[in-house]
Amino acid sequence: MDPDHPQPPTAAATGGETERAAFLALQARLPGLFREVFRDPGAPRTVVVVPGLSLDAEVLAKVAGARHYEERLLSMLMLLRLPRTRVVYVTSVPIAPVVVDYYLSLLSGVPADHARRRLVLLSAHDAGPGSLTAKLLARPRLLARIRMELGDPDSAHLSVFNATADEVSLAVRLGIPMYACDPVHGRWGGKSGSREAFRRAGIELAAGAEDLADLDAAAEAAAGLFARDAGLRRVVFKLNEGFSGDGNAVLDRKDVVDPTRAASVLEALPAALRMEAEDLPLARYGELFRRHGGIVEAWLDGEGKRSPSVQVRINPLGGLELISSHDQVLAGRSGQVFQGSTFPADPAYAVAIQERALAVAAVLRDEGVLGRFAVDFVSVPDGDGWRHRAIEINLRKGGTTLPFQMLQFLTNGVYDAASATFLTPLGQPRHYYATDNLVHPRYRRLVPEDLIDILVCNRLQFDETRLEGVVFNLIGAMSEFGKLGLVCIADRPARAMALYRQAVEVLDREAGADDARPCA
User: Fold this and answer.
1) Following DSSP, what letter does each residue of 29-81 receive, concatenated?
2) Measured between alpha carbons, how far is 503 from 517 in angstroms, rounded to an integer?
3) DSSP conformational letter for 191
4) Which of 424, 401, 413 is nearest to 473 (CA)?
5) Which of 147, 355, 405, 484 is such that its CA lies 20 to 30 A from the CA of 515?
6) Strand partners, 311
7) Nearest Cα to 192, choosing from 242, 234, 254?
8) How far is 169 from 343, CA to CA, in rounded Å?
9) pLDDT tens digits along 492-506
10) What secondary structure letter does DSSP report for 397?
11) If we measure between CA atoms, which residue out of 393, 459, 443, 437 comes closest to residue 199?
């Protein structure tokens, strides 16, 4: 056995103090990796991408096609532009070869064969419920295959969608560090921890109460909010670990006999509390609230209300990096479910919310948080300016990760945080409209090969000379759920939206045609 690279512990040895010590020793490698490997485009490295969503299974089940969200990190394949980088991409079920070919075709300047030799695709071949990471931990031979593909483990790291105790176990079993937040700091990514972080950062947040243990406590908090503000129309109940707005529920003042009394609020909940997630009865929501805890906040009203977001990274050296800003596109029963985003955020307030997000990042860094996260706001016009109230921290990758990474890699441009603009190497601005919720029942009539044929025949590909066009994702969800994602990149917002409308028009027409034939 190589003393410099001991074998990872067996499954029986993981957990508890032994695993914790091993994980911390692995994480201590990250600063050196960041200085010597991450910053050198020509340095050899291996990135193990495990893109599963390790979230509450019941909440996640409300997201149509959640398993296919493992495709949202296929943007990481763009790392193959770096000539000595290997990517090991692991999924629950195999990704269709045509989808992989599509992403490799976006690697401008890199021969597809060269990139393919540096890409390893592995799968648990398990489409059942449960997180991808749990599936991997249950398959020691698959873990052994991943370890065999690492090359030099000193130049390898693990990239995940979000980090839980299972991801810690996976990092230890693989013997490589994880570039993500240690889950012991997970409170800061929940709704209650977010509110505490906002207060410590000195930025405004919605009126409310956190660390609520059950619906009884939530009803008392809601009554308190209604009593303190006679003009408050609604309050929002939120699970600490809710995802994409599906852990939220809304209560209207008018639906409670005496909204200032906790008993009256509690009595009204069965008929009046409106869940954002479909088919989630109050009894089950109450169980989830007891399991995860939650918060109650005032519903923020205002003419022209927006929901911007700022993405930040805390690097292994403790540096704070502004990644991007977005305006979120929300939908759902009460407009709280993430549908997509426009990039960058409105210049009227983008810099202002970035400053607030950096203040939050400084608090999180002091608490030991590492990696990428987002700070979401609700912003309303206020006189000649805007009033911003922080809403939550998402301590993970998210719906804005793939779109921005695709923009970054496809254009080789940079985000100028000082002006909140993205510029190509020639100084040209770039904007995009992105969604991972383009849904139509007729799209089920298409298979991935059909989509590639349609986009080629209708010239919907990304144009690398003009640095604009459309990039598709979530392709695997199309035939099963009629669901797709896409990123529309252009030199101005109106042009990005025009590309989106064109793509939707083409897809609707082609999916509805009964006599369609491949054009090649």
Assistant:
1) THHHHIIIIIT-TTS-EEEEEE----S-HHHHTTSTTGGGGGGGGGGGGGGGG
2) 19
3) H
4) 401
5) 484
6) 324, 374
7) 242
8) 36
9) 999 999 999 999 999
10) -
11) 393
CA angle 183, 308, 403 (to 5 degrees): 70
E-strand ranges in 174-319 read: 208-212, 234-239, 248-252, 274-275, 294-298, 308-314
Structure tokens at 268: 């009204």
Q: Residue 183 in contact with residue 163, Cβ under 8 Å?
A: yes
Q: Which amino acid is at 118?
A: R
Return the structure tokens found at 520. Answer: 């090649």
In the predicted model, is pLDDT for residue 237 greater than 80? yes
Cα 358 from chain centroid (whole Å): 19
- Burial group, residue 279, by CB count within 10 angstroms (0-12, 13-18, 19+): exposed
DSSP label at 263?
H
Place of tokens 């770039």: 430
The more confidently predicted of residues 101 and 108 is 101
Sheet holding 119-123, edge to edge: 119-123, 85-91, 45-50, 156-160
Digit-coded pLDDT (tens) for 188-203: 999 999 999 999 999 9
Residue 336 pLDDT? 57
Closest CA to 247 of 328, 337, 375, 186: 337
User: What local confidence, expressed as pLDDT, does residue 7 receive?
Assistant: 44
| Spatial contact of 451 and 102, defined as CB atoms under 8 Å apart | no
Q: Is the peptide bond before 344 cis (omega within 30 degrees of 0)?
A: yes
Count CA atoms closer than 13 A to 76's CA, side-chain side: 26
Domain segments of the chain: what residues? Answer: 11-180, 207-298, 305-395, 399-520
Question: Cβ neighbours of residue 401 under 8 Å, at least 6 residues apart?
Answer: 72, 73, 75, 311, 372
Single pTM value for the model: 0.90
Whether the Cβ atoms of residue 249 and residue 276 lie closer than 8 Å to each other: yes
What's residue 8's pLDDT?
42
Cα distance between residue 162 and residue 159, in whole Å: 9
Look at residues 422, 412, 416, 509 and name the one whose alpha carbon lies nearest to residue 462. Answer: 412
| pLDDT (0 to 100) of residue 270 | 95
pLDDT score of 235 = 97
At which residue do the structure tokens 């998210």 appear? 398
Q: pLDDT tens across 238-288, in order? A: 999 876 557 899 999 999 999 999 999 999 999 999 988 777 899 999 999
- The β-bridge partners of 468 are 463
- Look up the CATH number of domain 305-395: 3.30.470.20
Please answer whether residues 250 and 280 qualify as being in contact, where contact means their C-beta atoms are separated by less than 8 angstroms.
no
H-helix segments, 91-190: 97-104, 112-117, 132-137, 140-148, 165-174
The number of residues in the chain equals 520
Q: What is the pLDDT of residue 203?
A: 97
